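Handout, page 2. Input:
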Amino acid sequence: MTERIARILDYLNQREYRKLRQEKPEGFVRATCVKEQVKVFKEIVDSEKPLLFLEDTLGFNRYTGCVMPQAEGNLTPNYARVIQKGFDAIVEEIKVSMQKTEDPEKLAYGQGMLGYIELCLNLVEKYQELAKQECPKLYEALLKVPHKGAETFYEACVFMKMCIYFLRLCGVTHLTLGRFDQYMYPFYQRDKAAGKSDEEILELIEEFFISINYDSDLYHGVQQGDNGQSMVLGGFDKDGSSMYNALSKLCMQASLELSVIDPKINLRVGKNTPDEVYEYATLLTKQGLGFPQYCNDDVVVPGLIKLGYAPEDAFDYTVAACWEYIVPNCGADYPNITTMDFPHLVYDVMKENLLDCDSFEELMALTEAAIGKECDRLTEEYNHTQVLPQAFLSIFMDGCIESLTDLWAGGTKYNNFGCHGAGIANGADALAAVKKIVFEDKAVTKEELLSALDADFEGYAKVRNLLKSCPKMGNNEDEVDDIAAKMMDAFQKGINHRDNQHGGIWRAGTGSAMEYLWKGEQCPATADGRGAGEPYSSSFSPSLDVKTDGLLSVIQSFTKYDMTHIINGGPLTIEIHDTVLRNEMGVKKTAQLVKQFILLGGHQLQLNAINRDRLLDAQDHPEKYPNLIVRVWGWSGYFNELDVAYQNHIIRRLEYLV
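Output:
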């Protein structure tokens, strides 16, 4: 890290720059048609003024903090096409498409696209005026971009920061950065050919990374930090060749040196990934960043192809804001439209049917049937979901300009829906417990169990202890892992390939997002021993407070099912005590565990290096830990900016010693 970057990083971490923002204007309307949306966008752009921070050469920082009423995101635009061509060429493409149609709706849509670009260029002119006085380097870049395409890595970074700025002004706050190391690599190569050193390019990458953190507090979903700024590095092409390049390594180095929450790094790996890549990635985990999140190409690509994605698109996959697998550029997938609530479903099946079941097999069959019915209900409820048009975002999506059709209205190649699967471990643990203590050991009667659940175990401590002592996912016990597999199989068969009436299909996944709290709060006591209202496990992970035989047994439990069948995303999340990574041996052992997860067929993994004592102290003395980072679900955030419920969930997760 250069001295200049160190100064800029300190400026970011002090957060004093936020005082430069002005109050938000009031009363922006949630417009439903493109023409009115452009008018609202004009109001927002007019409220913005150029703002440069300490030694800032990229610009395009928020002045007011207001955005258009939120629209759907969770996709990856084709930044490369826009950055390489420039807005002037894009304008000409829109005009050509308008000349080919007489459809008034399409013409109005094209006019909306042009209106957005014009407003963006007007604000760029204001930045030119400021930069001419304060940052000649930026001024020179703005004489070319965004009108023309970028040629240098610096120009590409300026254009990229500009795209993020304007797209988020439109309210699309969960747009990812996608495969940054791939679409920015040509600019890296040009700079290298022109004599630039890796050190110079690293400094620019680090400035870019810092710059996207300035406004991260303005763009959040459920919690601050949940802002969608994820980045995917590495991977393999269709010939099996590694796409992890010199720029991939520089991005990893930048993230390691800066220790900031954005961008959240996702690393595509596979059976042929070298050990040194795993070991270098583990250094980021050691830093306490909660990333990289690992994605297994050997599972994800075949899984996406099974769902109907063209091989060339599947090999180019990226991730959405958290973990959902999507394809960039041509995919307007809505990967988190709803959630299957496994613990509540299992509870309902038991309440309605347990007394009449003569065997566990009968109860299991009823559970699988109920999962199928719930798939029917969810798809019917959400099939007709309408999304507001996004004419500016559509400029960045392949196919929309040519057809003058919004990305959410069929303008892109893919329009698929994804369904999360919350609390899989809790549901499987509950069924396994009933199988053992009710049907096999007959230690508890059906009536007694149901009464214990109704009472939230008040007065039934013995029953609860028996339930908690039963087999649990995470101990490599086939008895419970097979139950989880049957549940997931019923889920994927009930969801995958269903039409969504938007020209796409449905996909099943193992994620939970914030639902591990939200749905847990609404769920009564369950037969795994979980109390009423208590949280579920985070995504595809062991239930809270479950004692396991160690990390290897956890990995074995959660890699038994063929994950190519349930590929919407949702990681195994593991907390490692930070002392494990205190030396080189700990780093190597952790890296080998990650490698084993990949070789065993795991699809997605995230590691959180935490220290429970430090987190408890941070709750009591937040002023001591202003920049303490933790993995929350599919993203990392600052611990002190989280609601207490999320802090407590992270503290309750089991810390492993490798």
